[in-house]
Amino acid sequence: MLLLKDLKKSFSQPDGTALPILDIPEYRVAAGEEVVLVGHSGCGKTTLLHVIAGIGRPDSGKVRIDDWDITLMPEAECDRFRAERIGYVFQTFNLLAGFTALENVLLAMRFARGRPDKARAKHLLDRVGLSHRMTHRPAMLSVGEQQRVAVARALANKPQVLLADEPTANVDAGHQQQILDLVRETCREENIALILVTHSQEVAGQFSRIDQLGEFNLVAGKLKSRADEPDKT
Questions:
Q1: Fewest CB atoms less than 10 Å from the CB: which of 29, 49, 92, 122?
Q2: What are φ and ψ of residue 95, in 5° steps?
Q3: How far apart are CA 127 and CA 101, in angstroms?
């Protein structure tokens, strides 16, 4: 389902030099597989999700999803591909302020196929405990409720890959497991490959596959090795 090959990504620093972030020889996730991605802050986890989604372009390498290499697609085609095949739960939600919770989920459907499925949108919002908040705009929702809308929106189009960046970080303890169960159950039912970034050991411990970014990203691996070296001063 997902294959990263010889993937490299860097950012330009103020002095014009390149700051390497990703150097991944190979990384695979099968259809329907559930993966937790962990690593220290700043090691490139969110950058990796952006590259997989086509939001950020790599410097070189391949990002293949279901035999489609999105690095070869023009921007408009990549945007359409992402809307149709990739679900993304952002840390900052990215909900549209002028639309209700239900409309935010329906708009995600319209961007992909142009045929919103109102029954599915309502079903997803009900499953995240927001059946009583469907007509509320983001400003009328708590931070945790906005996160739950974002989860429902990411699942709206039955994506092939779901990328979740700390999906339970802004949710109260009472709803954290509800969100996690919804994501995992939906991915299993619809054979969605899941890559979930988390700092929570409680969340990570529920998954059988836990990948340390430093184990397959050579940049993060080198930084970790340096950090682990004893101080000789």
A1: 92
A2: -80, 150
A3: 13
Residue 227 above 90 pLDDT?
no
Q: How far apart are CA 74 and CA 118, in angstroms?
A: 31
CA separation for the pair 70, 54 (Å, rounded): 7
Q: Which two tokens stand for residue 70?
A: 């999105």
Site of tokens 């190979």: 26
pLDDT digits (tens, 9 = 90+) for 96-136: 999 999 999 999 998 876 678 999 999 999 988 899 999 99
Question: How far is Cα 165 from Cα 37, in angstroms, rounded to an integer?
Answer: 9
Q: 218 and 24 in contact (C-beta within 8 Å)?
A: yes
Q: What is the pLDDT of residues 139-164, one digit of tens each?
A: 999 988 998 899 999 999 999 999 99
Would you say 130 and 148 are in contact if contact means Cβ atoms under 8 Å apart?
yes
Structure-token pair, residue 73: 């697609």
**Is the pTM for the entire model greater than 0.85?**
yes
